[in-house]
Amino acid sequence: MRYVDEFRDAGLARALASRIASLVEPGRRRKLMEVCGGHTHTIYRYAIDELLPAEIELVHGPGCPVCVIPMGRVDDAIAIAGRDGVTLACFGDMMRVPGSAGSLQEASAAGADVRVVYSPLDALRIAREEPGREVVFFAIGFETTAPSTALTLRRARAEGVANFSCFCNHVLIEPPLRALLDSPDLDLDGLIGPGHVATIIGSDAFGFVAAEYGRPLVVSGFEPLDLLRSIEMAMLQIAEGRCAVENQYGRVVAGPGNAAALAVIDEVFAPRPTFEWRGLGFIDSSALGLADDYADLDAERRFPLAGARVADPRECQCGEVLTGAIKPWECRVFGTACTPEHAIGTCMVSPEGACAAYYNYGRHTRQREAVG
Ligand code: SF4
Known about the structure:
This protein is α/β, with parallel strands linked by helices. The protein has 15 helices and 13 strands. A five-stranded parallel β-sheet has the order 2-1-7-8-9. A four-stranded parallel β-sheet has the order 4-3-5-6, sandwiched between helices. Iron/sulfur cluster (SF4) binds next to helix 14.
C-alpha cells in the first residue's frame, strides 16, 4: 500500500537503527519525548524502542486528547446526556472514560441517550433528523480536530439547525509543552513533535521549543520508519550541538500549516482564559471555547453545568504518566486494578493512551535499563 509499505520496511528500519546507534555517546543517556500518543502506539506496536541503543530513553508526552480530559468535564458531559430530550453525540473513545460517578457508557446503560459518532457532521445529521431533540456534540481534541468541529458549527449556523450545540473541549498544544519544558524535573534532550497537530498549525509553530528552550524538535509521521528517521534527526542535532525545529513529515506537514483550517478555528473559537488538564492542572490559554459569535451553539451556555473540579482517584497516576515522570508499568495499579477492561485512569482507556500501549503490547515490567 502506497505511503504505508515503504514506511514499514524491516531492512531500512535496521539501517536507521544502526545509524542512530552510531550517534549516541556510550554511557550518556539521552531523553527524547514523543509528544503524541499516536507515536507512543507506533513505538510499542513495532517494538521500536527495542531497536534503539540503551542510551536513548523515550518519554511519553501529553498529546493524547482523551487522556488529558479531567474528570469534571466527563461529569459535565454525563450531566448533559442525562437531561430529558437531550442526545449527547461523542467519539467512541470517550464512552469508557471514567468520571467521578461512572462513564458515558454506564450513563447510556442507565437510559441516557448517548450516541457514538465518527465525525461532528454525524452529530449534526442526527440533529437534522430528530428536530424534537437537543443534540450536543462532545468535542475533544487538539488543533487536529478543531477545524472539523468549527466547520460543522459553521454549517449548523448556515442551515439554521437550532437544536444542535457543542460541548467544546478542544485544547492547544503549545501551552502544555511550555508547562513541561518549564518543569525543572523533566530535563529533556529533544522532542518528537506531533505530526497531526503540525498538519494544521505547521512545523514553524514549534519554533519556540528551539528558540526559547534550546531543545531540538523533529515533527514526525506515524509509521515506524517515520519515527526512526525522526529519532535519527533529533540525535544528529544533539550530536552536532545544534538545536532547531525540523520536519520529517514533509509529505503532509508544511511550515506555515493549513491556512484555511487556521482561519476557521479563528472564526469559530476563542481561547479560554484557563482550562484544567488531567495531570497538569490549570494552564492559562490552553483550550478553546466558542467565540461570542457562536454563543447560541455553545452547550455550556445553553445548559447549566456544574463545571466542578474533581480530584482523580487516589490510586490513579495518570498525571505522572502524562508528564513523563513515570512509565505506565510504574503506576501502582497498572495491570492489576487498572486494565483496559476496568480502567481507573484515562491513559488505559484511550487508544492513544500510553498505559493502553504498554498493556496491549505486553510491556508490563521494566524490560531494559536506561543508561545514566
Ligand atoms: S495504570 Fe491506570 S491509573 Fe495508572 S496511570 Fe495508567 S491509566 Fe492511570
